[in-house]
Fold this sequence. Notes:
- The protein has helices at about 15-25, 90-105, and strands at about 1-10, 30-35, 40-45, 55-60, 70-80, 110-115.
- The protein is of the alpha+beta class.
- The chain has a 6-stranded antiparallel beta sheet with strand order 2-3-4-5-1-6, with helices on one face.
- It is globular.
Amino acid sequence: xARYTGIFKILTPVSVFQPLMKETLESCRFNVIYQTxxxxxxxxxPGNVAFHQLVTVEVLVDKTVITDREIHMNIVVKNEExxxxxxxxxxxxxxxxxxAISDANHWQIIETVAG
Length: 115
């Protein structure tokens, strides 16, 4: 199973974070399938890759460090594909999502850690 993680610290009003994050994921060809106050799960829209390569994204907000404007979030991007090559589909999607988060003008990135 391929799995990539990223940690982001961003400045944005907490009240608008989830709709903006949902919009960001949808711009990367994902459908949000589940969400709560501190969690979003989205699946890649089928059609471009084999079923086992379809990617799932989880966005987890760390409520222990949340303030009115600062959000710490972890993203986990994964699929059932064995990561036999460094440049696999899951890694490409992870790069596309992290770039979309970094480029979004909805918020200001304070810190990023990708792993």
